Amino acid sequence: GDSVTQMEGPVTLSEEAFLTINCTYTATGYPSLFWYVQYPGEGLQLLLKATKADDKGSNKGFEATYRKETTSFHLEKGSVQVSDSAVYFCALSDRGSNYQLIWGAGTKLIIKP
Amino acid sequence: NAGVMQNPRHLVRRRGQEARLRCSPMKGHSHVYWYRQLPEEGLKFMVYLQKENIIDESGMPKERFSAEFPKEGPSILRIQQVVRGDSAAYFCASSPVRAENTGELFFGEGSRLTVL
């Protein structure tokens, strides 16, 4: 079945460092891909998405490019801030999963000042 | 425009008691999803409801768990005869259309159930 694999956390970085959180997927069709963010004590909120190969989603300085050849959707940010500390979830939606959202386990990001 | 409202935020129950978790979706949203999140784990889909109908309950345990979304009032996730393994955060999310069409779900802040 469809699945999403994220790099394990926690990821600890200093402020202004470059961030990459890896996400790879397996899917039977042509999925749409998403990144959600969960700040401490809050629910999840959509950060960005891409619906077809080579699309780039971007929001709040974060970017992710849909790479069909490597089945990846890595999240990047050029210069992180303490306020970016959160848990980041990669997810997909695909015909093979009956269009349910399939979630990765989440990656906790800790930014130190 | 209020977001998705869940209550209670925290609930403590003893083994064998019942837990009722409520979710009021965003105004205009008729699609509701319930997820469970265990500590240090990702979200696990439980059930998808659309007003008065259960559309997909493939993630719901067959026993003790039930969900409803009546015509009037909030969606309710009910857990009967709770056990320690039910301790988790339960998130409700809503969408104006099937979330799979857009991928965008609007989440509540969650209800954290602790079973003693």
* Shape category of chain B: globular
Secondary structure: number of strands of chain A:
12
- Compressed to H and E, one letter per element, the order of chain B equals EEEEEEEEEHEE
Structural class category of chain A: mainly beta
Q: What is the largest interface, and how many residues per chain?
A: A-B, 21 and 22 residues
- The proportion of residues in beta strands of chain A is over 45%
* Number of DSSP helical runs of chain A: 0
Report the sheet-strand fraction of chain B.
over 45%
Kindly state the mean pLDDT of chain B as a whole number? 90
Q: What is the percent of helical residues of chain B?
A: under 10%
Report the order of strands and helices of chain A: EEEEEEEEEEEE
Taking pLDDT < 50 over at least 5 consecutive residues as the criterion, the unreliable ranges of chain A are none
Largest sheet of chain A: 6 strands, mixed
What would you note in describing this structure?
The complex is a heterodimer of chains A (113) and B (116). Chain A has 113 residues and is mainly β. In chain A, 0% of the residues lie in helices and 50% in strands. In chain A, the strands form 3 sheets. In chain A, strands 2, 5, 6, 10, 11 and 12 form a 6-stranded mixed β-sheet that branches. In chain A, strands 3-9-8-7 form a 4-stranded antiparallel β-sheet, with no helix packed on it. A two-stranded antiparallel ribbon of chain A has the order 1-4. The relative contact order of chain A is 0.35. Chain B has one helix spanning 99-102; strands at 5-7, 10-13, 19-24, 31-37, 43-50, 53-56, 65-68, 75-79, 88-95, 106-107, 111-115. In chain B, strands 2, 4, 5, 6, 9, 10 and 11 form a 7-stranded mixed β-sheet that branches. A 4-stranded antiparallel β-sheet of chain B has the order 1-3-8-7, with no helix packed on it. With 116 residues, chain B is mainly beta. The interface between A and B is medium-sized, with 21 and 22 residues.
